[in-house]
Specification:
- The structure holds two protein chains of two kinds.
- By secondary structure, chain A is mainly α.
- In chain A, 65% of the residues lie in helices and 5% in strands.
- In chain A, strand 2, helix 4 and strand 3 (120-125) form a beta-alpha-beta unit.
- Chain B is globular and about 40 Å long.
- Chain B has helices at residues 3-16, 20-34, 46-63, 67-83, 90-106, 112-134.
- By secondary structure, chain B is an all-alpha fold.
- Chain B has a single domain (3-134), classed as Globin-like (Orthogonal Bundle).
- In chain B, helix 1 (3-16) packs across helix 6, helix 2 (20-34) packs across helix 3 (46-63) and helix 4 (67-83) packs across helix 6 (112-134).
- The chains are: A mainly alpha, B mainly alpha.
Chain lengths: 882, 141
């Protein structure tokens, strides 16, 4: 019987998982299926199932591989999947950049070649702990049939983002594992121990483990070791209490504490550096020790490649947690030296060595750190970029390292440190292209981070001395245009752009960023939209390069241009779609700009409370991510919308908050809408008018025509100033229907022309600018009243109220109901109600003891007051009126 | 399994030995009633099939106390069943059909404890057969 135990325990039986294995078998044979995800809670047997799949495949002559996510391997990008990097770590291109796509593709080809076109069956255990680059590589390889991925994910942890594409396309199978039921547990115990067990012992094990397989495994093996579980006459009995702990972790700890020093050293070594070759371990400890560990279910030997790992990630976790730091350090450094002596090539081994050295708090090779930083940058993990490059000794930091670090610091909001490192980087030797990127990044930090556009312009200008060859030199021009555009000088920016003769692809992309915005701001919205669209397409073709804005920037610009063109609902839809994408990809700066632009367009639509929410979101994100400029814009929008909602106090609060934020030139005149509207809300019309006029003059000076139109129009909405002449001039020089509608509205106000005001309301409504339409209709009502056309006045007033009802509580001066709204008298209401029900005048007269003529007279008044012309409209009008 | 359960399975089986043909007939009725598609897996004469079924069942029931023998036997049986086109999911149907047939033939003798003992025994046999089935590797790289 004991022999049977030894046999059974060497390979702990797998029970209740056959249908899952069946899923794997079918997935492996299915066309287009790229992998299997195994999900479940800790200890449910995900690792075991994954390994079983792997063994099964190995027996069918599939090549196999195993990678394990853990909190330590996550430190260096791709460190965990070093074994897959068949083609090495990739090469830096002429600019010193690591092209990730090339690296992935070379890896794919090398794997296909190494395995003669067969898919490498790859177990990725605890996949949720892998770094982003590793997951991206696995996804890439699985997608292109270089590997078949078997990933395990703990319940409650998300499936890695980068695999969602494969999910969506239905190319990943999934199984959800659950703990065993009592019958399955019974079978497991029977098979593991090789014989029956008395009922009490079974019940005890069920009570403690509730069918969690890892728990059962630890409990039973612990019980065998402690002799609590013994076999007599072919039946297993419990002669002593099993450990009473209710935590699996404690149980594992107890088992590991009980190991001999020699066995423990093996377990520790594996916990830090697994997998290791069996041959090597045999030189370190006796084979008996390894056998006892295997029997104890603590280590497993992969039949496929003769490497040894801990049987379960939890064992590693527990051992690492208990390991003194210095002891861990000693182990890592010793392993690093050993492996270095074995393998000098700059391949995967170098990556593993670097991971160990980093974990040990030591200093890996700068080249490896830089490599890791490139990968981390690819995954937009700027914290990791900072950590890796910070480990490079100062004197060994090259220009590219400085560039990566400077960019990371900028992204992390540490602008002073970014300026320092980039300035230092500019003093280091490098090629022109790196020099250009250093200058561009440093200028960007000065502009957006430090909020000093003049400094940015100087940095950019100084770069002309070192960057002289085309097409690099023209990028300096494009960059100057960007600084000008986003510091509020669109006209100057367009002049600079005119000077650029060449048409380098990268320049074209950089150029589009400022050109789209400058064109829209100066009123050439159709061209602006076209430039933004083309910019996005070209950017996607170019790929994600260093020192260039996120591709979503072009979409943001398109939103801005559509807004300036008065294509409000298109702008809103595009912005919402874009916001969702960048939120999913965690690109804070793009999230901020989408939110702020949504605030703008929704303000113009008149949904003021919604606009306030977008601005608040943008302000919060900008603060959290240290973007002062966008934050200033968002706070201005917040004050503007609060004031338009009539909440003067909240508006003033937002303005006070803005005082502490540095000045920011982009849309500066428009930012002053906030101050002016707050003055309106606090009943200071004189101050408000001054602020509108001052801001409009600024806008005019910089050629910002759409802003000027907005400002002057708002002045007319809130005062008796007449700027209709200038608004018409602006309409003539802009191609925007919104600017044109504002001009016609202004002219109608000036002429007090009821018909023209009505048409202005039509125009605004057609553009989706509900609040402006409501105000124009209210103006029309007033003009009709003055002209004595009561019926038309009432109709216009009714229309105004209906439009205003969609403006979420907006409270602007011209929304106030014009005088002349006459309520129905009691008798009129009575007659109207009967008429609306379809009762004929004659019958109404009879019922109310009136003459038919009197009834008709009353009805005529009702029609006039309600602004209707037929009985059919009467019912609806009455409903709204009551 | 507990020793008591093993005894229970064997003693109840001993009781129904004279009725084995009836058990086999009932078993296939229950099986095809649950999944008519399974009928096409049986290409041999059903009378012969029923005889084989009772023989196998008898061997297995008496081998339960000797695990090594039981496993060798059932693994081989499982491996053979792959060739017959039996799928993993069919094992559940077979288990249900077997318990239903036992209940029908044993009547009142098939009490809750007996039923549980048989269910556990079947699970042990099924896992072992599936283990044997998994050793047959149809997909090769």
């Amino acid at each position: 019987m004991l022999d049977a135990v030894a046999v059974a325990i060497q390979r702990w039986p797998i029970v209740g998982r056959r249908s899952e294995l069946d899923v794997f078998e079918r997935a492996l044979g299915a066309d287009g299926c790229a992998g299997l995800m195994i999900a479940g809670p800790a200890g449910v047997g995900k690792t075991r199932l994954a390994d079983e799949c792997r063994e099964w495949a190995a027996a069918g002559d599939h090549p196999t591989e195993r990678v394990v996510g853990s909190r330590t391997t996550a430190v260096l990008p791709l460190g965990a999947v070093a074994g897959l990097l068949a083609a090495g770590l990739g090469r830096l291109d002429a600019d010193g950049q690591l092209n990730t796509v090339t690296l992935f593709e070379e890896t794919r080809r090398a794997l296909r070649e190494r395995h003669q076109g067969r898919r490498l069956i790859t177990v990725a255990d605890d996949m949720w702990l892998l770094d982003t680059a590793s997951v991206a590589l696995l996804g890439y390889l699985a997608d292109r049939a270089a590997i078949f991925l078997i990933g395990t994910v703990r319940t409650g942890e998300p499936v890695p983002d980068l695999l969602t594409g494969l999910w969506r396309d239905g190319r990943l199978e999934r199984v959800d594992l659950q703990d065993l039921n009592a019958t399955q547990l019974d079978t497991l115990l029977h098979l593991a121990l090789g014989g029956p067990m008395e009922a009490g012992a079974q019940q005890e094990i069920w009570n403690i483990t509730r069918g969690n397989p890892l728990y059962v495994h630890e409990l039973v093996l612990g019980g065998l070791e402690s002799r609590a579980l013994v076999e007599r006459s072919g039946v297993w009995h419990l002669e002593d209490r099993l450990p009473s702990t209710s935590r699996l972790r404690d149980l594992v700890e107890q088992r590991i504490v009980g190991l001999t020093a020699e066995a423990r050293s093996v377990v520790e070594l594996l916990a830090l550096c697994q997998p290791l070759e069996l041959d090597y371990l045999e030189t370190a400890v006796s084979i008996e020790v390894l056998e006892s560990l295997e029997r104890a279910g603590l280590i497993t030997v992969a039949v496929a490649d003769g490497t040894v790992s801990l049987a379960h990630p939890l064992h590693g976790e527990v051992v690492r947690a208990a390991l003194p730091k210095l002891r861990a350090r000693t182990i890592w450094l010793a392993e690093a030296e050993r492996l270095e002596a074995l393998d000098q090539s700059p391949g995967p081994a170098a990556l593993r060595i670097a991971v160990w050295r980093l974990d040990a708090g030591g200093r890996p090779e700068p080249a490896i750190l830089l490599h890791g930083a490139h990968l981390a940058r690819y995954a937009h993990d700027f914290r990791l970029v900072r950590r890796l490059i910070s480990a490079v000794p100062d004197e060994q930091l090259d220009a590219i390292g400085a560039l990566l670090l400077g960019e990371a610091l900028y992204e992390l909001g540490d602008f002073d440190a970014s300026e320092q490192i980039l300035a230092r980087g500019q003093e280091l030797p490098c090629g022109e292209s790196v020099a250009l990127r250093l200058a561009v990044t440093r200028a960007k930090n000065a502009h957006w981070g430090l909020c000093q556009p003049d400094m940015a312009l100087k940095i950019n200008n100084d770069a002309r001395a070192v960057v002289t060859s085309e097409p690099l030199a023209e990028e300096i021009e494009a960059d100057e245009a960007a600084i000008l555009t986003f510091s509020g000088e669109p006209e100057q920016a367009l002049e600079v752009l005119d000077r650029i003769a060449g048409s380098g692809q990268r320049t074209g992309v950089v150029r589009a960023i400022s050109e789209a915005v400058a064109l829209a701001a100066t009123g050439r919205t159709a061209r602006a939209i076209a430039v933004a669209e083309a910019g996005f397409a070209n950017h996607m073709e170019l790929g994600d390069e260093l020192a260039i804005a996120h591709p979503a920037t072009h979409v943001i610009n398109q939103v801005f241009a559509l807004t300036e063109a008065g294509r409000l609902s298109e702008a809103e839809q595009l912005a919402r779609a874009g916001a969702e994408i960048v939120a999913a990809n965690r690109v804070p700066i793009a999230q901020i700009w989408f939110a702020a632009n949504l605030g703008r367009v929704v303000t113009l639509q008149g949904r003021i409370a919604t606009a306030r929410r977008y601005y608040a979101e943008a302000a919060g994100l900008a603060e959290a991510n240290h973007f002062a400029g966008p934050r200033r814009l968002a706070l201005s929008g917040l004050a503007l919308t609060q004031a338009m909602l009539g909440d003067a106090e909240a508006a003033e609060q937002a303005l006070r908050e803005r005082v502490a934020v540095p000045d920011f030139g982009f849309l500066r005149p428009e930012q002053q809408l906030a101050d002016a509207w707050t003055a309106v809300a606090t009943r200071q019309p004189g101050k408000a008018a001054e602020l509108f006029l001052d801001a409009a003059a600024q806008a005019r000076a910089s050629g910002h025509r759409t802003s000027e139109s907005w400002l002057l129009h708002d002045l007319m909405r809130t005062s008796t100033h007449d700027e209709s002449g200038r608004l018409l001039e602006l309409a003539d020089t802009c191609d925007s229907p919104l600017v044109a509608a504002r001009a016609r509205h202004a002219a109608a106000i000036r002429a007090r022309d009821a018909g023209a005001l009505s048409r202005a309301a039509d125009e605004f409504e057609a553009l989706g600018a509900k609040l402006l339409a409501a105000e124009a209709a209210a103006g029309a009502a007033e003009a009709y009243t003055r002209a004595g056309d009561q019926r038309a006045a009432t109709a216009a007033r009714r229309r105004s109220s209906a439009l205003a009802a969609e403006c979420e509580g907006a409270s602007t001066p011209r929304l106030a109901l014009p005088a002349g709204a006459v309520p129905l008298s009691g008798r009129e209401r009575e007659i109207a109600r009967l008429a609306a029900e379809g009762v004929a005048s004659k019958d109404i007269a009879e019922r109310l003891y009136l003459s038919v003529r009197t009834v008709n007279n009353h009805l005529q008044h009702v029609y006039t007051k309600l602004g209707v012309t037929s009985r059919a409209d009467l019912a609806r009008a009455l409903e709204n009126d009551s | 399994m507990t020793p008591e359960q093993i005894t229970l399975v064997q003693s109840s089986f001993k009781r129904l030995e004279p009725q084995l043909p009836a058990l086999a007939t009932r078993f296939y009725e229950e099986l095809f009633g649950r999944d008519p598609d399974l009928r096409q897996l049986f290409t041999t004469d059903m009378a012969l099939q029923k005889v084989r079924f009772t023989e196998k069942l008898t061997e297995i029931v008496w081998a339960i106390p000797r695990l090594g023998e039981l496993l060798a036997h059932t693994r081989a049986l499982g491996a053979r069943h792959v060739g017959y086109g039996v799928r993993v999911s069919d094992y559940r149907t077979v288990g249900e059909a077997l318990l239903a047939a036992l209940a029908a033939v044993l009547g009142d003798d098939f009490d809750a404890q007996t039923r549980e003992a048989w269910a556990i025994a079947y699970n042990l046999v099924a896992e072992s057969m599936l283990d044997g089935a998994a050793s047959v590797r149809p997909i090769r790289a």
